[in-house]
Write a structure and sequence with these properties.
Elements lengths: L2 E6 L5 H12 L2 E3 L1 H11 L3 H8 L5 H12 L16 H18 L2 E4 L3 H4 L6 E7 L2 H12 L3 H23 L11 E4 H21 L1
Parallel strand pairs: 1-3, 1-4, 2-3, 4-5
Helix pairs in contact: 1-9, 2-3, 2-5, 7-8
Length: 207
């Protein structure tokens, strides 16, 4: 089944590009719905999964996970780690949801390491949405109502977490161009222009 993965810098509007691509192609879109499904399977709230999925685990979480892996019969008691699924468990369930989405039919998948999980597939088009820092910041100011300084800080921190997430779980560099077939500057092309380009490439590639 043909797949388009959309990896996006925070503030690039990549999720909106993905939505437009899916609508144009008539394919399934998996963005927030992935989070919904992971939360349901793990018995967590959507907010809990969203807060944990693309961030570094705390020291206490890393220690608790190391202890449980070394001695599965020992239950960690650091904070609420004993009852909360580990970061690794959330990633495993996320991967399973993505794999099931691929089997379900043509799909557009947003973030969550899909470009790494599906890297060897010949029927996948991997896209990276980016923009200059000024444009990323302006997007967040407009959409979240933050001050320029707050927006820039959020952009830098969020993208750093996404970069670390990919490195930690896939041993890949998030910004490495070899991960992608095409990189689109959404500030230059605009969201509609970027989506049109990606959809046209998918149509030409997959028919």
């Amino acid at each position: 089944m043909p797949i388009v993965t959309i990896t996006r810098q925070y503030g690039s509007g990549g999720s909106e590009v993905a939505e437009r691509v899916a609508r144009t192609l008539g394919w399934h879109l998996y963005d927030n719905s992935v989070v919904d499904e992971v939360a349901a399977r793990l018995g967590l709230t959507v907010a809990e999964v969203s807060a944990r999925e693309e961030r570094l685990p705390s020291l206490s979480e890393r220690l608790a996970e190391a202890i449980s892996l070394a001695s599965p019969e020992v239950m960690p008691t650091v904070g609420d780690v004993a009852v909360a699924p580990s970061e690794e468990r959330i990633v495993q369930v996320t991967q399973r949801v993505i794999e099931e989405a691929v089997l379900a039919g043509p799909a557009v998948l947003v973030g969550r390491g899909a470009q790494c999980l599906l890297a060897t597939r010949s029927d996948a088009l991997h896209v990276f949405c980016y923009a200059p820092i000024e444009a990323l910041t302006a997007y967040v100011v407009t959409n979240l109502g933050l001050s320029r300084d707050e927006a820039k800080k959020k952009v830098l921190e969020t993208n750093a977490r996404r970069e670390e997430y990919v490195k930690r779980h896939w041993s890949r560099e998030w910004r490495d161009l070899s991960n992608y077939h095409v990189c689109v500057n959404t500030a230059w092309l605009g969201l509609d222009g970027a989506a049109e380009l990606v959809a046209r490439m998918a149509e030409e590639r997959f028919g």
